[in-house]
Amino acid sequence: MTEAEITLTSLSTTRSRVLDPPDELIELAAGHRLVRLVHADGRLGWIVLNYRDASRLLKDPRVSSRQDLRHGPLPHARVRRRMEPTPPGFFMRLDPPEHGRYRRHFAGLFGGRSMSRLESAVIHQVDVCLDRLAEAGPPADLAGEFAEPLASSVVCGMVGVPERDRTWLAATIATMLDLTETAERVVAAEGKFRRYLEDLAGLRRREPADDLMSMLTQRQGLTDAEVSNMMQLVLSGGLEITASMLSFGVFALLTRPDQLRRLLSKEVDDGAAVEELLRFLTVSPLLTRTVLDDIDVDGQRMRAGEPMTIHLGVVNRDRAQFGAADDLDLGRPSREHLAFGDGPHTCLGQHLARLLLRVGYRRLFDRFPGIRLAVPESEVATRNESVIYGVKSLPVIW
Ligand code: HEM
């Protein structure tokens, strides 16, 4: 085995171009499939920059998602805390077979066929949120008046979170994902979120309604703590990322008028356009795992116990896989991007996200064909301090 030549002492999140991953990582990826990375607690591990390795490693049983083994890549409040066992039901941080024991409860609920049945309800919610945007402006903040309320109404509605609790819940999740927050505030937000969901699970167990939470509480063998942690994953996975992808996708299209024209004129298929935006923007770029057994990649040995971060934003720009990967090309044929991850933990809500994005973009641009930024592109603030990338707000006129 040869020694890795390059060690990154920290993970760069600073972007010189808003739509592209950090320069340092893109440059490294041109000559390296993986390099050494010092993770936030000082533990030396790896960062994977190559598409094929990323896809293969995410399916490799020698690679673990367990929380008690985890060393995060960013100096986020949570990584400063001691590594703890995975809470019951928090399947995103469990390995097979325990992971599958929880994930199988969602079988059929988030699949393509269920989404077809949901389409008319999603169209209705999109139109309600477009009315809200129309009432607020012009000018109006598309993120706050359209993208966030849309993700919230669909995902919270599905889980069974009452309307009155949705605003503070979204703010609490944002605190949990904010890289600049103190450990105290993140722990407090997590505690509030957990207690709220456990109480709601107890209520739905006693008085079931027509929603996901009620359904799971009626299943044999699941405790309220398990159900609430499963729902925490759906909410924290579904709300902020989907809202961010909606508004960031609109930003990308408004700043790439040639591509927007292709969408408006229906030269490209709406579904293909969504896939390309997902690939190009990769709003949730970092996955972290731990190596359980030595694995050799590109002449280097990843050793048991070492943390491994996969930068989905960088691997989704791999030229060997996508050709002119740094171009946004809405007609690109490949759907093989990794924006939803890969392997057993691949995104549970990906079909729902695709539906929301496809219907959301199409109806937005059909209703407001003259929509444009209300401020110069350079004045749109981005979310450099969140685990989820995107714009903080998106002022638009029409
Ligand atoms: C554009 C929107 C979305 C993106 C880019 C996205 C991205 C991802 C990624 C990359 C993962 C893999 C995590 C890992 O391997 O550790 C993931 C997992 C997950 N996502 Fe999504 N997601 C989106 C929307 C949603 C929605 C709408 C929901 C639910 C309503 C959801 C629920 C989940 C859950 C529960 C997991 C954990 C799956 C598991 O560990 O088995 N996501 N998502």
Summary of the model, kept short:
46% of the residues lie in helices and 10% in strands. It is of the alpha+beta class.
What does this structure look like?
The structure is a single chain. By secondary structure, the chain is of the alpha+beta class. The chain has a single domain, classed as Cytochrome p450 (Orthogonal Bundle). It has 14 helices and eleven strands. The strands form three sheets. A six-stranded mixed beta sheet has the order 1-2-3-9-6-4. A three-stranded antiparallel beta sheet has the order 5-11-10. Strands 7-8 form a two-stranded antiparallel sheet. Helix 1 links the parallel strand 1 (about 5-10) and strand 2 (about 35-40). Bound molecules: protoporphyrin IX containing FE. Protoporphyrin IX containing FE binds next to helix 9 and helix 14.
Index terms:
alpha+beta; globular; 398 residues; binds protoporphyrin IX containing FE; six-stranded mixed sheet; 14 helices; three-stranded antiparallel sheet; Cytochrome p450; 11 strands
